[in-house]
């Protein structure tokens, strides 16, 4: 099995070096390129076609959100994991809407970062309850639900709508399985069908669409765990 190819994007030389050191502890991960700004990241992604891109938000020349948008537009299969600090919470919705597959704080533990890379590379989205809460807050601010988005949901079965609502509340697949009293494999099957029917990339886009369509109500999200 070939190693996961990772592109590290951060304007801080020390941060890039630290990330490289952390990832070197996992023999199944290979850092194939680095970039110090968003423009360089777009060029590097096109050149090396990484499995996962670790993307900072605040950078010169081109910020991480704009870079993510360009990369995903050119390469829809790109998997971008946003790395940021608490001060960047205002950027979460923009990054996810731009096509990022996950969001992680820079102060996360090394083993959690490595696990996140494997999660993203495996086609899953990394969406913590805290990030779900941020998405919800932004969707609450939207003036009206898009009727076109609501019509897209008519393709779902009642059980698929149940799964989508629980995803939007921030529940993981095991938690959804427990709530609906089904197997985790059944939940994964429902999730795949939801993404296929709604033409969505991943779980992140499913959460955004769920709130645009009013599938779940503000205040119904799962409480954030400390």
TrEMBL record:
Residue ranges of domain HTH luxR-type in the record: 149-214
Gene3D superfamilies listed in its UniProt record: 3.40.50.2300
GO biological process: one example: phosphorelay signal transduction system
Keywords for the protein's UniProt record, in alphabetical order: DNA-binding, Phosphoprotein, Transcription, Transcription regulation
InterPro entries reported for this sequence: CheY-like_superfamily, NreC/VraR/RcsB-like_REC, Sig_transdc_resp-reg_C-effctor, Sig_transdc_resp-reg_receiver, Tscrpt_reg_LuxR_C, WalR-like
Domain Response regulatory: from-to ranges: 5-121
MF-aspect GO terms: DNA binding
4-aspartylphosphate sites (modified residues): 56
Pfam families reported in the protein's UniProt record: GerE, Response_reg
Record's keyword annotation contains Transmembrane: no
PANTHER family assigned: TRANSCRIPTIONAL REGULATORY PROTEIN NARL-RELATED, TWO-COMPONENT RESPONSE REGULATOR
Protein name as it appears in the record: Two component transcriptional regulator, LuxR family
Record organism: Catenulispora acidiphila (strain DSM 44928 / JCM 14897 / NBRC 102108 / NRRL B-24433 / ID139908)
Lineage of the organism: Bacteria, Bacillati, Actinomycetota, Actinomycetes, Catenulisporales
């Amino acid at each position: 099995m070939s190693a996961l190819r990772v592109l590290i994007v951060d304007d801080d030389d020390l941060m890039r070096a630290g990330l490289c050191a952390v990832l070197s502890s996992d023999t199944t991960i290979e850092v194939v390129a680095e970039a110090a700004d968003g423009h360089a990241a777009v060029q590097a992604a096109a050149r090396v076609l990484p499995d996962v891109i670790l993307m900072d938000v605040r950078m010169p020349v081109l910020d991480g959100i704009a870079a993510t948008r360009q990369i995903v537009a050119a390469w829809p299969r790109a998997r971008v994991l946003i790395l940021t600090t608490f001060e960047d919470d205002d950027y979460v919705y923009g990054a996810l809407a731009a096509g990022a597959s996950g969001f992680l704080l820079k102060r996360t533990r090394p083993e959690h970062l490595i696990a996140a890379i494997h999660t993203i590379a495996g086609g899953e989205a990394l969406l913590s309850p805290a990030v779900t809460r941020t998405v919800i807050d932004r969707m609450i601010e939207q003036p009206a639900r898009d009727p076109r988005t609501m019509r897209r949901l008519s393709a779902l079965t009642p059980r698929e709508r149940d799964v989508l609502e629980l995803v939007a509340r921030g529940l993981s697949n095991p938690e959804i399985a427990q709530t609906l009293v089904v197997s985790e494999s059944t939940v994964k099957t429902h999730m795949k069908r939801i993404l296929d029917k709604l033409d969505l990339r991943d779980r992140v886009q499913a959460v955004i669409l769920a709130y645009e369509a009013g599938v779940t109500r503000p205040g119904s999200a799962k409480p954030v765990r400390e």
